[in-house]
Amino acid sequence: MNLKHFSAPLALAALIASAAPAMAGARVELRGGILSEGGDTVTVGGLAAGYDFDFPGPVFLGGEVSIDNNFTSLSNGSADLLVGLSARAGIKVGVGGRAYVTGGGTLRSVENSPYHAGAGYQQAIGPSLYLKAEYRHLFATGVNDPGDLVVAGVGFKF
Questions:
Q1: CA distance 113 to 158
Q2: What is the arithmetic mean of pLDDT over 76-87?
Q3: Using one digit for the tens of pLDDT, what is the confidence trace for 85-96?
Q4: 116-125: Cβ within 8 A, 24+ apart
């Protein structure tokens, strides 16, 4: 695993933490979805934890760590663990909604996909619970195929 791919997301997280106002929120979630790449489509499930900083007006910035594992083998017979470190930026939409773009680094147990980028939407369903849907494109390096990860989750805000 090459940690140099995480230098930009970590720098952004440090900048956000030093510049953000006191209004903020930690969150954790359970998620599941599909990973499609190179002709294979597998089901995945995992966990994510993050922290969002609310700025005046509709803007928010945040960071997230995620761990996703596939429940079925790829065509080469191996399982795949994806560990992501992401930054996200977006706007608050309506009552309890958050639309955002995301990007960061991905460490994988099977092959390299050092970077990802995508978008998502998170909707509060109570004072502490939320639902989330997210798409991430996994960029490929070398001979590996790029991939697409689509997940839906339920989470808890602290």
A1: 31
A2: 80
A3: 999 999 999 999
A4: 116/84, 116/86, 116/149, 118/149, 120/88, 121/93, 121/97, 122/97, 122/98, 122/155, 123/96, 123/97, 123/98, 124/95, 124/96, 124/97, 124/157, 125/96
Are 132 and 25 spatial neighbours (Cβ–Cβ below 8 Å)?
no
Cα angle 126, 152, 156; round to 5: 35
Partners of 154 in the β-ladder: 30, 131
End-to-end CA distance of the chain: 32
Please, which residues bridge with residue 99 across strands?
Answer: 91, 121
Strands, E assignment, the chain: 24-37, 40-54, 59-70, 81-93, 97-108, 115-124, 129-139, 147-157
Residue 75 contacts residue 40 (beta carbons within 8 Å): yes
Q: Is 142 left (phi over 0), alpha (psi -120 to 50) or beta?
A: left
Query: CA 148 to CA 144: how far, in whole Å?
Result: 13
Q: Beta-carbon neighbour count of residue 127 at 10 Å?
A: 7
For 15-43, the pLDDT digits (tens) are 444 444 434 699 999 999 999 987 888 89
Handedness of CA 124, 125, 127, 129 (dihedral sign): negative
Q: Structural domains in the chain?
A: 3-157 (2.40.160.20)
